[in-house]
Fold these 4 entries.
Entry 1:
Amino acid sequence: MKRIFLHVQHLLGIGHVRRAAVLARTLAASGFDVLLVSGGAPLRLEIGGARFHQLPPLRARDAGLRALSRLDGSPLDEAFEVERTRTLLELFHAEAPDVLIVEQFPFGRTQLRFELLPLLGAAQARRPKPLIVSSVRDIVRRTMSPQRVREAVDLCRRFDLILIHGDPALIGFDRSFAGWEAIGARAAYTGYVAEGDEATGTEGMGEVIVSVGGGAVGSPLLRAAAGARAQGTLADRTWRLLAGADPHEPIAAADGLIVEPARADFRALLRNAALSISQAGYNTVVDTLGCADRAVLVPFGTERETEQPDRARWLAERGLVTCVPAADLSSHTLSAAIEQAMRGPSIRSFPPFNLDGAATTAALLHRRLA
């Protein structure tokens, strides 16, 4: 049985590790022996027949995503980095994988050069050499400097395959990565990586579902949604606010307003809802494209972090969703976007998008190894 070593690091939200977990369990179900190696805060993950290893965890120090820290907020030091790298390399050599998959690098996660460059070096030196693969989302940070783009292009030469988990018919990777022409020959689109469940159940029928993923930066959206509820044509509907695991400013429930943590049946709630209001992270948008009727996106972003605003804007340009930039968010702007979404077409009226990214990834890797 061929072995896969899959490295993932979540820093602020949990989207990266959730997508990696879907890939891990799909790869395992297809006949690979998969080890998912996570460097973020420990989480309960559904990984099926895959195996799991937790590295000494770290996280982003703040929403700027520039600096890393330990989980308690203390800064990383050289001793921590050396020990974590040693642990990672020992694990890699013990596994002796046929495939190394590095999630998001070299297009992101550059703060982890201290361990990822040695990992790539170990993979290139090993005999027989494993297939070295980069696994990246549909969109990367468009604010990369020319120097960072050149660095990413140079590092891509150390990869045998770049798997882009998106659909070029919807959003091409070239829209966000300026070095596309230099890497396109070794890249392959897989389609979006979706959870793949049947999303069954009747709860949430006709509701407005407001979700903020893990809840790390979602409080402004929750407050705006609570304020917008009474301002439009959906005031008579039940509004369900999924506040994440640890909302910083809890919203009080009221008559017709349900407030609860994120739920495992989120896709079923979306399928039954009249409207979805959410941020524009990869996993939430994939769930929205696969399940929702209509949607309003309020993307998280900073001057440096452009991924969610770009994704929301480009989907809105296609007429799939309406969008409220985070800087413009208020109960009034959200209410106006809700009215626009309800007047517009259903997402389900568009041709289907490629949401089979996990199975396509498995098939691509089987073919390359064959």
Entry 2:
Amino acid sequence: MTVTVAPAPRSSVAIRVELPSERLDAAITEAVRHLAQGTRIPGFRPGKAPRPIVERVVGREAVLDEAMDHLVNRAVRDALVEHDILPLTDAAVDVEQRVEGKPVIFTATVQVRPEVKLGDYRAFNFGPEIEAIDDAKIDHVIEELRDQNANLVAVEDRGAKAGDYGVIGYVGTQDGVPFDGGTAERMPLILGEERLIPGFEAHVMGLKPGESTAFDITFPEDYAATELAGKPAHFRVELRELREKVQPVADDEFARSLGDFADLAALREEIGKRLRRNALDGARHAFADQIIEYATANATLELPDILVDQEVEIMHDEFRSSLARQGITEAAYLKVVERTETDLHADFRPQAEKRVKVLLVLSKVAEAEGVTIADADVEGEVAKARERYAADRKTVAYFESDRGRSFIRSTLRRSRVVETLIDAWLVAHPEHPPIPHLEDDERSLIETTVTPGGTAEANANLGATDPGSLVESGR
């Protein structure tokens, strides 16, 4: 057997194999015996019919196909072992010659682990940027707290205005006849948000509770109910309730109502501390993202289609879970947006390619930096997964599997190597204020990366392999 291996596009290799004619002869003999055993041929015991009789029953091409199938499969396996090739996919075979008495020639193409060539990932000219926290930002939080603790107070002595909370009743007619969906006894609305027909709320402005108004209005051309789109209608509306939001005064009493604060100054001090902590945490996250983008942009690799296809499926599963949490089926969503599953996959693909590249590059950086993960760390995360997903046996089984453990190990390595690069930069720049480590809060990988409908859950649903685990074992 003569084997020639050459690189092919998209992280593939083309294996050209030439087999002597004797190998085909032997394969045909074996194929005849196999077909004779599985085919009922009158006058012959199973497996005893000669080749001419077998070919007369099943066809000459069927015998050759059977022989080639077994011959090619064995030859591909032998070639992969001989040249130490670890395929990610089954071989795509292109037969060049399969004629008795002549050598068998074919090319088998398989996708393989991508070769990641790192560029620079340390000498970046940027650093973490920490958001400045001033009184204006603290004031903004105070205003949000006042709004969250506001009361709705009945309004009797003035007309409705933007921002008020109202309850209306209305009857809509066309040519004097009420139409479906055009009547409501009690419809709540926040005036000014224009959630009804454009221009509808303008007729409610100025009304006092108990007052009514009547008006004509035209439905927009793109109205969801197509039978009403672009058509005029007459509405009679009564304002039945009117309330306004009254915020508490930002004083010491308000501060004490929110917790263990002596006065407003103490509340402002605590808000300032939290904002500054959040700013430091955000700076580290943003800095990590920049480092990842820098390393990925400088790396060179070809992405195997199989890994990108898998990531598309993972993104699809994440999207499907997101819709489910909103009470929406995928079929209903696709119908409304007039899209197909194929369209979704086309939309997902660019981001899927980016995600796979990031996973592969970070795993290669971790290898270059000598970042390893102890088995005990992986098992600790598996234990946390068992606790968190106690009612979800499928997800627990994934994390307990070799693939699930590889996902955990690869994810921990990627996180740790980025933190290593950040810490190294901070050591080299002592003038920069310290920023907290992302792992200082001691939350587990399961708590920080495994969200409902997230990547890990999608991996579990699909039994996917983490691309980063293909670069190096990481122990």
Entry 3:
Amino acid sequence: MQKRVLTVIIVLIGISLGITFLPMAWLAIGYADNMWLNNSVTDGLIGAIIFYIISLAIVGPITAGVKKLEKQLNEFSLTYIVFGVVGAILGLTLGLIGTSPLYRVPVPFINSGLPILIMALLGYLGFRMGTTRIDELKKFFGGRNKKAETNEGEVLERKADDHFHKYKILDTSVIIDGRIYDIAKSGFLEGVLMIPNFVLYELQYIADSGDSLKRVRGRRGLDILNSLQKEDGISVEMYDGDFEDISEVDSKLIKLAKLLDGVIVTNDYNLNKVSEFQNVAVLNINALANAVKPVVIPGETMNVLLVKAGTERQQGVAYLDDGTMVVVEDGQHYMNEHIEVVVTSALQTAAGRMIFAKPAHSSRNIKDDSPEKKLDYDQTKETK
């Protein structure tokens, strides 16, 4: 459609130029008296044919250039464009006023080329001034807020940037996990939580599964969604669209995140890696949980309850209140007992944190080396 309109415009320009300039051409070559050639209809037709042939070569590049320009303009906000145009107009106006004396100077370049260069430079500077100082211009033309004047010194102006309301697209796994509700309720997850329909359908499919474990997990996810929607301080929206050409839910989530410039919220390790590879922002709940776990350092002591044997010989395993595993060397001798241990090292993995420790008494130096003291120590260890 654009090509046809552009072709029509070029042909109309050809008709106008043919009627205007072809009579002079006929006069120059000696055909001015030929009424079959030198008339408005013939001149317009010849001009139309010539410019139609020209349009076949230039319409394609012009259309591509217009589309590229439209794409670039769409990336800018309306405020940016308006202030830029106003700044450019002011710059051109100043250039026109300032260069008017130059037209009377009897020097070829100064009275023709120099004014154009000055006006172009001032127009560009005006555009830059208008686009780089939008906030200052808003305050200058908009005036001061009466409420701000009244509470001056008490309330500071702030504005949320464009990313404040960025969509947080929830994955099926993070909904079933349930921790997303507590995180959103605490206010650490800003913006709008988006639930795509294909994620809701997957939850419903899991809730209707014949496997009792899957059925419980699916119903838990639906309960979490209802809780999120009923919470006053949490903004939840549904996405009704679908991607029929994509079968996997994870791929649909990545496609939707690219379409809306959103952030995927998940605790799926594989989805996290695939999203990062495709330059899609991801918030991993497991990564958040690991980040807020208490940090321990070698040499720190703690009191733990050994609950089971470890995988290696004579190891015992205990757990902190947050679920962190503590592997205690020689811990099998103290099963189901509270003992004081000394941290030797800590290992951070994608699955969580592991702490390695040993009983506190094994790291203490025994200053009294008498046989009686050594015998009492050995008997106490054997009794335990």
Entry 4:
Amino acid sequence: MKKKTRGFMLLLTVCVMAGILFTVRAHAENTTDENGFTVDDSGTLVAYTGPGGSITIPSNVTSIAGGVFASNASISSVSIPASVTSMGTAVFYDCTGLKSVSIDANIGSLPAQTFYNCTSLSTVALNSGISSIGSQAFAECRSLSSISLPSSVTSIGDKAFYDCTGLSAIAVPGAVTTIGSGAFDGCTRLTSISVSSGNSSYASNDGCLYNQSVTRLIRCPQGKSSVSVATTTQTIGSGSFDGCRSLSSILLPESVKTIEANAFTGSGISSITIPATTNTISAQSNWKPAAISGYINSQAKKYADANGITFHALDAQQEPTESGNDGSESSESGNGANASDAAVSDGSENSGNESDGNSSTNITIIPGTTVPIVGAATNDSSGASERAAANDSSGAPERAVIQDYAGATVTSEAHEKDETPKTGDGINPAFYMCLAVLLAGVCCFLLRKKTVDSGQNN
């Protein structure tokens, strides 16, 4: 028993001594210079304990371990030399005091979350050799107003510039073939996403991001207050207007066929016009416009009805207008002339007359009779009298028939003034006979009286 105990104690002593030797050797290999940089024997920067301020990574460093400077608010600027060929993730994560960065490092990519939440970062200079921007690499960098991506960049990761509220414009290099989801989400002041000519995957129109053929709208910058959707657009992509709160109205061109799910989620669009060509409108969460304008029997109408949204029909039929003559509708005659506006009265009120104070023509309608109206006129607003009926192109007067409440029919007929006035128009012939007899009697009386007077004188 004693021999086993001694053996166990000896083994434990050997293990402790080996651990001490390993620790001493490790500390001997990780050297810390006077500026607080701790570098291991492989050239990897593993720790920083310096005072902060403006720092320059030592030239003997070839790699920077992940999170080395994380949450160090004392660093104001950093310069990374060309000797550095690799970096871990989140190297400067939450360095809220960091204002400027210069990267000359020969790194193939900027790792994920490299400058996440560096809220004071405003100046960034990237080496031309960088080929990719990692996911959330600049997320929450609210002071970043501009950045120049090198032409070598081929991919931009998910949410790479998420919530960069100070960013107003960004240019996508011609070599970029991949832009991750939400890469520019939360950029509330972003008004322009431009794409370099010759890009094989993307294009831009009116500051918006499209696929190369400009048939799919990928992203409208959240800072835009107005937008003109390209007339070649066939698909409004998911999330394309997400968060566009400054945009109040939009007109979709007739080329649009599909509106994907949540294309308008969180947007400020309250008025939208959707063409009849749009045959698919997917669900839009957290978006309910005040009105949708579109066409009857269209998907726009169906979507509006299904979601309780006011719909304005662009192809609605106009109601027929009524004339001012006793509620009757004006009509066109067979020869294309307009019906006359002759003034007609039921004996108590004038109907159809427009007057500037002059007296109007009153005609009493006798039920069951037809009354010709010759030369009836209305006064226009200038006081000039116009004839009640108009001649058509053939010269034939047009007749307008108006039914009164008792069933009487009144006809108005236009006449041109005769060149030679006619006499006796409408006088009974018996009048002439009576007049002739009377004249004959007078003549006989005068003749007889003359004869008598002559005899007396003799």
